[in-house]
Amino acid sequence: MALVLATGLLAGPAVAGDPPISMPASPQGLRAPVALPDELDPASPYLPQASCSPVDTPGVTKLRNLVMATYGQGWSGSISRGCTEGLSEHSEGRAWDWMIDPKDKRQKAAAADFIAWVTRDGGRNARRLGIMYVIYDKKIWGVYNLKGGWRASQGHEDHVHVSLSWNGARGNVSFWTGKVSPIDYGPCVRFKGTYGARTGTPRTTACPAISPLLVRTTLGTRQFGRTGATVKKAQALLKVSRTGRFDTRTWAAVRRYQRAHDIPYTGVLDQPTWASLSPSSVKSRTVKSYTRASAIAHGVKHYGGSTIRKGQVGKAVLILQRALGLRRADRNGFYDAVTLAAVKKVQGRAGMGRDGLVRAAEWQAMAKALN
């Protein structure tokens, strides 16, 4: 996955400078719908786009609606967009553009009120809302770099861009809930060079280790917003309208397919997905030439002293999937629902606890059942 920094994030040296607009001393701000706690939300680190999830998130939608209702100026630009424009939180539905006419004094005054209110007092209100950064008129301010102040950026003369953290995007911040939550670091990449797996569950710990790609195909990555013959090929295989455009219907079909075949839930036509969807396109495999018996023997010898569990990714999982006799379409090196069901079936037949954990006993049970 080749991601290029979006134009607005090409910030210059981190040197404090003047804001992009004259700031009012007593700005009109937003009114929280709940009583705010004394404790302040943690300042979000910079959490760049990792997944392709072009759906408006609830926290950004609430912010947009409240800003428009409070100030009544300008007009609302987009929240979510396709995943073809480079690194952008719009591609995860956690950024919003408030369109402002540079020639309209009332609109500019409203923008000044909002920007001043968000950034004042060390970004106190930005933290309450889970705002990571604001860009306006060639300047960027980030709550994760207060010492840098307003830094040089590019574009955005006609709109205020607001990017939110995952807590802010999901609405899990004190401004909306009255409670402070730990930092949500968002989706995790499972295979190197792919997008992060989408999830609705906050992540407060480090991501699991990333696995190298276990299979490569002749087909390139295609994500929401892309067009062309490769997209049309996928649509034919997924049995959706062959428009040649990676649209909402195609995105939903890709997600359904990934869920059904133990593929990280990226919503993207990536290498693991292509290998399952179009086996004839596979050009190389890290793990190959294993029969079910040889996969079991390999597992007994090499993995008996460790534990393989749901959510794990890598070569060991791929060997396990072959040992379980899963269909080729389900052998992707990611331990999810299909693999879990097969492991529990082995455990049940052997009279073991159906916990889904694969240890020496499970490998021995597979070996015994094959003989």
Description:
This protein is an alpha+beta fold and 371 residues long. The chain has three domains: 7-177, no CATH class; 209-285, Orthogonal Bundle (Muramoyl-pentapeptide Carboxypeptidase, domain 1), CATH 1.10.101.10; 292-370, PGBD-like superfamily/PGBD (Muramoyl-pentapeptide Carboxypeptidase, domain 1). It is built from eleven helices and ten strands. It has helices spanning 58-71, 105-129, 166-170, 174-177, 229-238, 248-260, 271-277, 292-302, 315-323, 337-349, 360-370; strands spanning 75-76, 95-99, 131-136, 139-142, 151-152, 159-164, 188-189, 196-197, 215-217, 282-285. The strands form three sheets. A six-stranded antiparallel beta sheet has the order 1-2-6-3-4-5. Strands 7-8 form a two-stranded antiparallel ribbon. Strands 9-10 form a two-stranded antiparallel sheet. A hairpin with a 2-residue loop joins strand 3 (131-136) and strand 4. Helix 8 (292-302) crosses helix 9 (315-323) and helix 8 (292-302) runs antiparallel to helix 11 (360-370). It is elongated. The protein starts with 57 loop residues before the first helix and ends with a helix. InterPro entries: ARB_07466-like_C, Peptidoglycan-bd-like, PGBD-like_sf, PGBDSf. Residues 240-277 form the Peptidoglycan binding-like domain.
Which geometry do the CA atoms define? elongated
- How many independent structural domains? 3
Main beta sheet: 6 strands, antiparallel
The SSE order reads: HEEHEEEEHHEEEHHHEHHHH
Strand content: 5-15%
Strand order of the largest sheet: 1-2-6-3-4-5
Please give the share of residues in helix.
25-40%
Low-confidence runs of at least 5 consecutive residues: 1-15
- Helical/strand content category: alpha+beta
Keywords: Signal
InterPro entries: ARB_07466-like_C (IPR058593), Peptidoglycan-bd-like (IPR002477), PGBD-like_sf (IPR036365), PGBDSf (IPR036366)
Domain Peptidoglycan binding-like: 240-277
Signal peptide: 1-16
